[in-house]
Amino acid sequence: MTDTTVGSSKPYRIAVFASGQGSNFQALLDHSREGQLGAEIVLLVCNKPEAPVVERARRAGVDCFLFEKRAYARREDYEAEIAQELERRGVDLIVLAGYMLLLTPVLVDAYQGRMINIHPSLLPSFPGKDAIGQAWEYGVKITGVTVHLVDGGMDTGPVIAQKVVEIEPGDSIESLEEKIHAAERDLYPQVVNWFAVGKVRVDGRRITIE
Ligand code: GAR
Predict the structure, then answer these.
(1) Residue pLDDT tens, the chain, 210 long
(2) Rounded distance, CA 65 to CA 54, Å?
(3) What is the CA 115 to chain-centroid distance, rounded?
């Protein structure tokens, strides 16, 4: 009988970059283990060796590349080391999940179209740091979560998907944060799966899911 299986036998491989709690890392890991991601997390890259996300990775047996920025003269130097690790593991997609360092062309150019970020607002509103706090202070009625391709700017890459979160009368900044994080845990694994199964088409700034 002929084997008609379509696609490569190599599992889709992702590297997650994170600096903090790792709730998005955990959601990706859980979906991967349940077979819902269509991808394997082969590396965690983290610039804070003490961050809780590192413990999550260790418990799960995910390899970690840990570094401290101050040990390097230039951003390009640690990014060149990261690039080697990614290459060695055959990484298909970089998934930024609360990675709080700016990237240089060393990684941005090498992974153009293959690097995504999640941001806790409806871009282009509230880019940069403390997006949830910015939206709260502004008093908007709706905010949310954006997943976008990474380009050379700060939260400026083409939008892949967005999820709306309403700010309701009883909300506090804490309840809003919880709603945003819940939306992230839904949206990010979904988007990674779209990449893994080859559903994402990029035409300039217009991205469609087939
Ligand atoms: C997430 O809310 C993510 O959207 C945000 O950092 C948090 C990381 O949480 N990223 C940014 O603000 C990027 N500009 P986590 O460590 O629990 O996944």
Answers:
(1) 333 344 456 799 999 999 999 999 999 999 999 999 999 999 999 999 999 999 999 999 999 999 999 999 999 999 999 999 999 999 999 999 999 999 999 999 999 999 999 999 999 999 999 999 999 999 999 999 999 999 999 999 999 999 999 999 999 999 999 999 999 999 999 999 999 999 999 999 999 999
(2) 10
(3) 8
pTM above 0.85, yes or no: yes
Q: Are 132 and 120 in contact (CB under 8 A)?
A: yes
Q: How many residues does the chain have?
A: 210
**Nearest residue to 150 (alpha-carbon basis) of 185, 91, 107, 209:** 107
Cα separation, 149 vs 117, in Å, equals: 6
Token pair belonging to 40:
């394997």
In the block, residue with structure tokens 């403390």: 130
Q: Cβ < 6 Å from ligand 1: which residues?
A: 18, 20-24, 53, 97-98, 118-120, 131, 155, 184
Which residue has the CA at smallest separation from atom 10 of ligand 1?
98
